[in-house]
Design a protein that fits this description.
Elements (H helix, E strand, L loop, with lengths): L1 H8 L3 H28 L2 H8 L4 H34 L7
């Protein structure tokens, strides 16, 4: 536990801000936008704004933004956090 605390406190402010923005805020905002557009915004509004000529293309986009995008962003979010923790906070003995 002491080693974890020492490694955390040795990080610079820029490393912490970079991690907060790139690993937490960007994926979170991306997921919120996908959820908003897929589940809250009216389907007709999305259809009008995207101006997709073919109904099949819009259906594919709508299914993707509704079901696939939130899962993909969550996987990216978790893998980024795990990678950051392993890089900066997990003890790695020097050879």
């Amino acid at each position: 536990m002491v080693e974890f605390r020492n490694r955390f406190y040795s990080l610079t402010a820029f490393q912490l801000i970079d991690a907060l923005v790139s690993l937490v805020m960007l994926p979170l905002v991306g997921m919120l936008i996908a959820v908003f557009v897929g589940w809250i915004l009216r389907r007709q509004t999305s259809y009008d704004e995207l101006n997709i000529r073919y109904e099949l293309g819009f259906k594919i986009w709508f299914i993707t933004i509704r079901y696939i995008t939130p899962v993909a962003v969550f996987i990216i979010f978790v893998s980024g956090l795990v990678g950051w923790v392993r890089k900066y906070l997990v003890y790695q003995p020097a050879f």
